Amino acid sequence: MKVKRVISEFNNELKLKGFKAFKIEEDSNATRIYSRKEFYKICLTTGKSIIHYADKSFQQEGTVLFFGNPHIPYSWETLSTTYTGYTCLFSETFLRQSDCSESLLQSPFFKMDGTPLLEIQEEQRLFLNTLFRKMIEEQENDYTFKGELIRNYIHLIIHEALKLQPSEHYHQTRKATARITSVFLELLERQFPIETFDHPLQLRSAQDYAQSLNVHTNYLNRAVKEITGKSTTAHITERIVAEAKALLQHTDWNISEVAYALGFEYPTYFNNFFKKQTGATPKSLREEIV
């Protein structure tokens, strides 16, 4: 129960402030469980690991600097018995309060076709350690402009990374269509469950997913159809319908709120969509449950 409470407090603080920095060994549980669909991530770690990022896998040993984009699925396998370093998580809203943030978020580290991993030498590690420690210190104090100061540290880390050579130690084990389909399906699943109706679904069309994954819509459609036998739109539609049923059955939100949460501009659009897909209206489905 204590671990769950700590993780809950961690997530609540992260969502409230839009930023969190910590030593990895001190918050290992929270590191594994935080909601990646909302937050960018920068990690400075020392150890041996395999990092799966979109359609690539990186096997690294030593110190690396990793950049995670919440719109691109990734996972981390720790291979060494000791794993140390620092992590900072931040929302796009938090960073965009700075004038130069947009160009930094468009850097090659946060793109699907870029390289999110850098090998770090000892001198660089010591300097970057200092920046992460400064962020941890600043988030605990009451300085009026600490948010601006923390953003400056994030910018400095990204700029330091831009001067370094990216790691190319990756291997690709499946053909391109299978990889991009796998990434699409994982990204689709990451949009759910919908937790609050005031944060509606952002990715609703094949074009939305293609843009997020930095590929052409036609290429994504062909790949998904080839591998799964169903269109990209069919997968998205099925998942939205499943979420709509869950919200109608397990929440007390009114139908307008459910519609908005799922990205429909008007309840009428949602009613027509739901009836076309299920043969029933949202209201009739809810009445059957009662």
Structure in a nutshell:
Helices cover 51% and strands 18% of the residues. The chain is α+β, with helices and mostly antiparallel strands. It is globular, with a radius of gyration of 21 Å.
Shape: globular
Number of helices: 13
How far apart the termini lie comes to 34 Å
Order of helices and strands: HEHEEEEHHEHHEHHHHHHH
Beta content comes to 15-25%
**Helicity, in percent?**
40-55%
Largest sheet: 7 strands, antiparallel
Arithmetic mean of pLDDT: 82
| Number of extended strands | 7
Using the CA coordinates, give the radius of gyration: 21 Å
Main structural class: alpha+beta
Poorly predicted tracts of residues: 1-10, 26-36, 169-173
